[in-house]
Amino acid sequence: xxxxxxxLDSHSGRHLYEQIYDHIKREIREGKLLYDEKxxxxxxxxEYLQVxxxxxxxxxxxxxxxxxxxxRPYRGFFVCKIEGLYDFQAQRAETAERETVVVPxxxxxxxxxxxxxxxxxxxxxxxxxxxxxTGDRKEMFALGHPQGDMELxxxxxxxxxxxxxxxxxxxxxxxxxxxxxxxxxxxxILGRHRSVALENPTYKRAYxxxxxxxxxxxxxxxxxxxxCVDALYECGADLAYVMPSHQFPTGIVMPIGRRMELLKWASxxxxxxxxEDDYDSEFRYRGKxxxxxxxxxxxxxxxxxxxxxxxxxxxxxISYMVLPQRLLECYRCQCMFFSSTxxxxxxxxxxxxxxxxxxxxxxxxMRKIYKSxxxxxxxxxxxxxxxxxxxxxxxxxxxxxxxxxxxTEKELLEAAAGNGIKVYGMSETYIGRLPENWQPTxxxxxxxxxxxxIEDGVRILAGCIKHQP
Amino acid sequence: xxxxxxxLDSHSGRHLYEQIYDHIKREIREGKLLYDEKxxxxxxxxEYLQVxxxxxxxxxxxxxxxxxxxxRPYRGFFVCKIEGLYDFQAQRAETAERETVVVPxxxxxxxxxxxxxxxxxxxxxxxxxxxxxTGDRKEMFALGHPQGDMELxxxxxxxxxxxxxxxxxxxxxxxxxxxxxxxxxxxxILGRHRSVALENPTYKRAYxxxxxxxxxxxxxxxxxxxxCVDALYECGADLAYVMPSHQFPTGIVMPIGRRMELLKWASxxxxxxxxEDDYDSEFRYRGKxxxxxxxxxxxxxxxxxxxxxxxxxxxxxISYMVLPQRLLECYRCQCMFFSSTxxxxxxxxxxxxxxxxxxxxxxxxMRKIYKSxxxxxxxxxxxxxxxxxxxxxxxxxxxxxxxxxxxTEKELLEAAAGNGIKVYGMSETYIGRLPENWQPTxxxxxxxxxxxxIEDGVRILAGCIKHQP
Lengths: 469, 469
Known about the structure:
about 475 residues; Aspartate Aminotransferase, domain 2; alpha/beta; Arc Repressor Mutant, subunit A; Aspartate Aminotransferase, domain 1; homodimer
């Protein structure tokens, strides 16, 4: 019982049984109590330690549960054989490197992913949250439908029909925590060994996601109407990921003719599908919104993906996907066991937010804010870069500035960065080789900057691009 | 201009330009305006329709944007060539079958996935939400870190260390919207063509998820201490998915000896890892919580996964994963572009909920509720099924009732269902063939039922199982 000399502290705040348990466990782990060694009976140890027998019982029971000791009938408690335990390091060194996210400080960041953060409708959101979190809706705290709650799907369905011409029923909608998640789910729905064609240039994140799949990823060049259909046929892909309403980064709106050609391509083989990423279609500054590609799809060949992260706030992780009937069946057979990734509380809040018109009001407000910034950027570019072409206007949250001069894109970005201006090079959005006769092009996102910042930023940009040797 | 006879209604609430746009688009889509046909100039059409020229300009611009018409320099506007458009069905029939989720009504459902829904801490949640949604924290509405916010990761890290003995730094934690999502991400981190071993019987959802991966899924039998290590070596898998603290469905607590053997197995090859699903470890009714397997891992071989969906509410989709250093590097290289799937607002609420002690209080409350239900079920089983063994007690949210008699499990479930009682057969949790000498075993989850319901349910169950021929 020598190994069981232990000091118990009844004022330590820790249960006596825990102290006994800790002590014996340590003795075993440090090899002081060896395999097959018999422990004192609970009665004896209780007497020895001057504690109640039930205290020792509890300590032994815990050691039994965790497999440190075993009970042999009529014989008592013995230390178990535990392979590889004795050289256990009690304390693992904290070797983890600290996470170092270096965020360089820019005066103005023209990020195409920027958003206006001051405009989150937090009063409305808070009010709806308060009304949602009441005790009389206990079903809301249970696990929801894997596709998302029917109420929200119905609301999204109506919204998509009215604003984007999308033809679908709520049964076809799958709600998920962001586009990236929906693409992960889509991989499971479409199955392995697929080949997907992406526009080149394209949204690099989507490219990386498809690359992480067991998919062949092919790139297809673009002309002024979008993805080149001849090259799509040639590349042999059976899926095509496109952004017809406002391509990133080119800003090209795919005309109806090209859309019909893509739909025709898809209709020619059963396994062919178009993945339409309608990422920023809410923001268009002249005329009506461009209808979605899905709106022209009569053979159930378009998988439509959209998000609320862009229009409400990136922090809100709610996206949706509209599945054609055949894929809906695949989803139901193969993927229904994946639980929904969106909190039902959040689904309920968003449902009320859209249903009661707050979303439409929010969008109108944001469109005004973004249009004013868009106009400020367009104006500043025309003032400070009079000889250079600007493209991608009328929609979205970024413009392209086509540089004319003899600097490389990298030099332009470095010159800008050196003056506290973060701009983005369009060459970064190309997969593989740049097209021949490539001219440096800057992507200027304006959503996260005020008009005065935009004006000032473009002025500085023009100065440093022109003056640097 | 015959095709351009249109009736404009200035009181319809629709812009005149929209009416013009709609009309021309319809004429083109229905083949009344053909390819190459010239449209009247904007001046002429404006005069003809008695509207301002800018109205017609806007309509033409929209048609141009969408690719229905094109502008030929010095010649005017012409209808584009749009292949495959003319046989377009204007209205797609709504063929979507209505979603029919048949929910059979049971008087008592002993689901092992049941939870107590009345106890969601909605007052506290609402209070924290209110404090969180203030205008002065605008950074919260931006896109967050892909692994989740550092504040919440730090809080989870402390909680895991204190409650589960998990050794990690916040840098190793990845927060995601549910365990299923984290497994999808883990597939990308671990890479393709892996082989994973699962305990048999096991959690069927995990099995289905691994089956959907490009993985070889192997099953390994269990003995009274958990996964058989010899069989694990033999099966050739390089990953093993285990539930050491309270295996589903057996309820087995893996003793320290078996844990060390599993860790030894993992340490022998670089690509080997253990995936520890600690799904319901919060609920243990005697003694201290069983430490996690990760707590004994000194060679960074355990991927630890846990969730708040079980302890707070299934509707809350927040889980976490602790990655060993080597896999953390893989994650950073290959998967950092997957955006976080959890709303930052929810992350912030959960962070305060845990940090300020509300989570601990909630857990204590739930433990009391669940212990009382656990005791009621154990008591009722002993009263109504005196000859039958009950196992899996002391932890978790379900028990196993080992049937002795000559009915099949299916007959038992049907007899119960016929009397309004939903119980679950353990044979359902086996992959492939049942073990020899299989005896029907019922899984009885008690978390979603009150004590009186449990007592009554078991009484009815005993009656119908005994009396039915």
